[in-house]
Records
---
Amino acid sequence: MYDVRITAIRKADYSDLQAMYENPIEHTCDVQVGQQWVSRGGAMPEGMCDSAWESMSWFVEELAAGRGNFFDGWMRNPFSAMISCNDGFRPVSFLLERI
């Protein structure tokens, strides 16, 4: 099994959608751009957002198992993937890389 580095690359904030559809909430996403985690053996790293992990876990598990080349050459590095969490109001894009 391989380790997989997970890096927060970009964080968007759609305040117009929040104003139109979201109930006010006190606590939002704590992820910071540049923040990194390492998945060991395909396991969820400590401190990783549950919702983000749900979006990326299959890709991390595949990379950890030595597989890759998702969608027939989608990424320049075949042992990587760019995955976004499923928060439609403030999505975070994560780069997954086999290390």
---
Amino acid sequence: MSTGSIIALVVTIVIIAAIGAGLYFLGKKAKKRQEEQQVQIDANKQTMSMLIIDKKRLKIKDSGLPQAVIAQTPKLMRGSKLPIVKVKVGPQVMNLVCDEKIFDSIPVKKEVKAVVSGIYITEVRGYRTSKNKEPEKKKGFWASTWAKAKEKAGVQQVK
């Protein structure tokens, strides 16, 4: 190997190591910040009965959230879409931000009991009506072929 290629190889290894170390420390800092926020959310949570009117993923500018909330969000976050749920709590209609994990399971036009912390829905419980189960998605060609091959080989149970 020539001297130039050895130097280039060493420089790329050093750069990759520096990026890896930087990402490690940034991840550690973000995890600590998330744990602190989760403690605050748990301290302020309360259960409410509400009617879910609509749910959408909207940009924070278009979400209908209070102006104070929009002003506090970082500028990079303003362009991203958030799961927004339009609810009726008592006589008041308001928009709330939903946890990404439970957004798909929230039923529309149903009355539910939800655990809310400020304007953030963390959990949904107590559906008054039966939960409508979505039909199973059809498997693709390769997934169904793979499942058939497993059944023939005896790896997977036959349905």
---
Amino acid sequence: MRGLVSGLVVKILSMVILFFSIPLFIKYFGTESYGSLVTVTAFTSFLSLLNLGVPNAISTIGMQLARESKVNKLFNFTFPTYLAYTAIVLVILFLLGMLFRHYIENNILKVPFSLPIYFLAILYVCSNSILAYMQAIYSALHKIDIANIYAGILTLLPILSLFIVINHNGDVVFYFQILACLNLGLGILSFLLYLCNKAAEQPDLSQSDLVRLSKRNIAVTAITATAITVVSLVINQFDTLVVSYYLSKDVVVQYSILNKVVTIESMSYGLVFSSILPLLSNWFAEKNYDLIQQAHEKMLVLMSIIGGAVIIGNMLFFELFVSAWVDHSVFAGYLPIILYSIFSYFSSLYSVNYITYSSFNIGRKLMIFAAIVEPTIKIILTLYLTSKYGLIGTLLSVVLLAVLVTFPMTSWFLTKLSGGQITMSFHFILKHFGLAILPFMLMASVLSEQGVFIRLILLTLYLLTSWLLISKKDRLFLTYLLKNKNA
């Protein structure tokens, strides 16, 4: 229970900090420097792949071991090697930075940096890897609340670094220096606290434990985790680097603001999924495919309504919201908003497929296949369309990937992993899009300049129309789902 509550608190905390910190960052650093900060952050996110998925593997395997002494054995077996590997990565990246400094500075980051600062940036990445490993150990020990506390502190470090920079009249470079030092300190603290509380008991390992602790199992689990991480990073961070490469820092900020607003809106998806995920896992274990199929169809109904609300709500209120929240200069325009909102809509739909088959906890080969195909297509689309059409091209690549690749692929995975027992139902989606989303999108385009009261009435009418399109039986289920998020 503590793990669930602390996890929810961390999610809400990160969204609150994200919401309130962005105006502070832009106001202090200015649009140009904030664009550089966003780009560097995206760059370091990709460097996090260098942990090779080991923290995820430690968490997964450690939870399967189920005893503290066995998890400690896993730590003793893996941490020295992981620490040595991380140190080697730090040295290699620093040497590569020295060799390709001008290319990284002029073409990728487009911000000047000295070699000591570059070293601190790499140190930040490596310390993040160690901290991720320690969080994984606490998760493996079923001390989720402690892992979440570290995650919460990690969320606070950027805003703490900003306040230190403001008090010392520092710049973006100084900000990354402070952030790197704080991050490293947190990683060392988590390691020392673990050592102080580590039990010395030597466990008796069964044959299944030895299989789980084998190098092969750790490697396969890590590779699978890395594959999933690659997809996430390419989908969420690669665009920022491409926009930075081809366009100006002002456009980077506009894209970043658009991305963050839609991300905050998408929190509602996770709240719905968290209520149904335990049920899906139990039903799959019992081979109760009928209930899974029914739940899948009803989640699609709910996600279609929420996704449509995101599209129409953004068309009506995005400009007003961003102007009040940050500044009108970071407003990207209506076409980018519509494109990104359409992506969010399809993301809500294919997330239903993903959350359903991921609850089965099978299909490693398919996950790795997706991790190769999806990012490859994404990279090609983003590079080509951004170079041709600028920010509109970037957003078009996101929409095309969602509609033509991710959505059909997750639908196929769902059918494949359920042995054909569960299929995608398009009946309500098509009806709802034609009778509710599309008409109200047209009305929103006409009434977007009207007063706030008129816009609120339009959004309310959309929700009422959507509710009336749902069958009575489905309404009862969705009411239950929304009222019982801890089911």
